[in-house]
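User: I'm writing a tutorial on reading structure tokens. Could you give me a worked example: one chain, its sequence, then its tokens, then a sentence or two explaining what the tokens reveal?
Assistant: Sure. Here is the example chain.
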Amino acid sequence: MEIQITQRQLRVSELLRQKIADILLRGNIHDKNLSRYSITVSQVIVSPDLKSGKVFVSFLGEKNSDQILKDLNNYAFKIQKQVGNNLRLKRTPKLKFFIDDSFDNAAKINKSINSISDIDSLR
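And here are its predicted structure tokens:
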């Protein structure tokens, strides 16, 4: 089964990513816990009906990423409200935050490839 992603979904996803990143960068959340961290919004995926959005984030060098993610999801409605005030959309998608582990996965794959090439060089 192939999933079709429309141009509209891509356009709204990118607008949301930029606006959420801007809100987090400027510290418009007014939460002392979240304002201490460097949060990167890597991707937003919206549903075909544009009612919900998955926001993928990563944290620079943070060990307690689960707590940061929990705090973000607690403030998701406030972030969603700020996004809605700044974008001209009929309705703002309901946001849910997830940890983006694609960089960690890429590093593991790269390490595996390097270890294979190191073994080959020993032969």
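What the tokens reveal: The chain has four helices and three strands. The radius of gyration is 18 Å.
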